[in-house]
Amino acid sequence: MLPPGIGSPVGFLAAPPAGVCGPETRHVCTWVYDHTGGNTFLASTADWLIGRPLAIVGVLLLGWVLRWLSRRIVGRSVSTLLSRAPLSIPVTTEELRSPESVVPADDPSVADVPTREEARRTTRAHAVATAVSSTVSTLIWVVIVIAVLAILGLDIEPIVAGAGLAGIAVAFGAQSLIKDILSGIFILLEDHFGIGDELQLGDATGVVEQLSLRRTVLRDIDGTVWHIRNGEIDKVGNLSQVWSGALIDISVSYGTDLTVARALLLDAAQTVSDTHPFADEVLGPPEVLGVESLDADGITLRLLVKTLAGRQFSLQRSLLEEINDSFQSHSVQISSHRVQVHSGQVRRTVSRSPSTPPGASRPPP
Q: In angstroms, what CA-CA distances link 13 with 36, 38, 45, 144?
């Protein structure tokens, strides 16, 4: 009887000895081993020069394809998710003044005109898609590296176990960082605010100068820069979305004819609204909402004027000046030593002494 492999048909040889072929690349090695009559040197050489490099190239190519697909899928998924909420944001001041004439986002007449909301949506989609796709790409390449190490014949079980322990340790040690990043992703997804918006975040109030997945940077009106971790943001007041209101409480003394006081407030507010630059910014006729409260100082009337987002502060200053002049000229006495000016959730109280002329107090900038 002939020894195995001598005079025997090709393909009937025993499997190559252990250690000759790689655990993940046996096909080329076994083929060479079978066709060389069991030559282990040639089989091992073919495995290292052909089999394993081909396997590594195939794995790397697969990783590149998966990374490309993940970026495409994540980008489209995020864009689709953000576009589910239909846009109905007006694009001009006239449309804001007339809500019934708001142009829907899918109107072909404005399809080529990007609105501010669409620009914000594009920015948010890009930021979120970049963050998510980067995370997915990292996971893909980690798996690819582990697969390449396995092709090279390294024992990957200790590597995987060590990576798992390291991941657990990092997760426990970086809980606040992970919370900040997740909060930043949802802030972008849900469009809580963006760069240039004026916000109230607890004790911090200012304009957003920087926004990342980890933190938000505000600059207050006095120049103070606030650095706030996104994970610490429980609630936020955005003073810059679509429209704002100049809300002023004026207290007049008891015995004042409220009809006259209301008329003076409306006339003063209308005069300011018709002047430059407020004529292009005010979104509707001024409203005296009525008597807000009765107290020891007098009767408090509330005035509201809607304007473009972020323009309420300069409007409030001009309103107070005009109200002061109007009340003085008609001998209407402002009874309270305080005039309250509302800005979002903030109620600014401006004090004046009894010697100060009625209505002469001013809100802080």
A: 10, 7, 19, 34
pLDDT exceeds cutoff 60 at 175: yes
Residue with tokens 């708001």: 102
Nearest CA to 46 out of 59, 58, 56, 33 is that of 33
What's the topology of domain 189-238?
A: SH3 type barrels. (2.30.30)
* pTM assigned to the model: 0.57
Residue with tokens 């006339």: 267
- Which contiguous run of DSSP H or E holds residue 287? strand 287-294
263-299 CB burial, b ≥16 within 10 A, e <16: ebbeebbebbbeeeebeebbbeebebeeeeeeeebbb
Residue 209 token pair: 């100068």
Cβ-based neighbour number of residue 251 at 10 Å: 22
pLDDT for the residue numbered 305: 92
**Average pLDDT for residues 209-226, to the nearest whole number?**
89
Tell me the two tokens of residue 344: 């979002």
DSSP designation for 117: H
Q: Show me where the domains of the chain are located.
A: 1-84+114-153, 189-238, 243-351
